């Protein structure tokens, strides 16, 4: 790829530059970029814009997953998808039950 990223052998949708710590996941016409350095992302996006039509925004949804950033933590969940399935099978009014899981699951 002209932007300096190498395609992963294990996942053909994943591109990375391990020296710059930047990762790009592409699915059809959607993508998401992850990096610890904001300046690296800005430089990469400039290169990407020279080759493709790019829409830049905060990642709230990606491939049906909801993404929430709270401070230094990022949470990925599928609450919207779960609600859609419950509604489809007319179970949205059923009582929910909590599933106990340890707070720090690593």
TrEMBL record:
Ranges of residues in domain Reverse transcriptase Ty1/copia-type: 3-101
Superkingdom, taxonomy of origin: Eukaryota
Pfam families per record: RVT_2 (PF07727)
InterPro entries: RVT_2
Protein name: Reverse transcriptase Ty1/copia-type domain-containing protein
Taxonomic source organism: Araneus ventricosus
């Amino acid at each position: 790829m002209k932007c300096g990223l190498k395609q992963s052998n294990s996942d053909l949708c994943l591109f990375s530059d391990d020296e710059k710590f930047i990762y790009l996941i592409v699915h059809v016409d959607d993508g998401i970029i992850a990096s610890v350095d904001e300046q690296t992302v800005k430089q990469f996006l400039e290169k990407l814009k020279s080759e493709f039509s790019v829409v830049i925004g905060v990642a709230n949804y990606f491939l049906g997953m909801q993404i929430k950033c709270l401070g230094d933590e990022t949470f990925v969940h599928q609450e919207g998808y779960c609600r859609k399935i419950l509604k489809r099978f007319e179970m949205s009014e059923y009582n929910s039950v909590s599933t106990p899981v340890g707070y720090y699951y690593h």
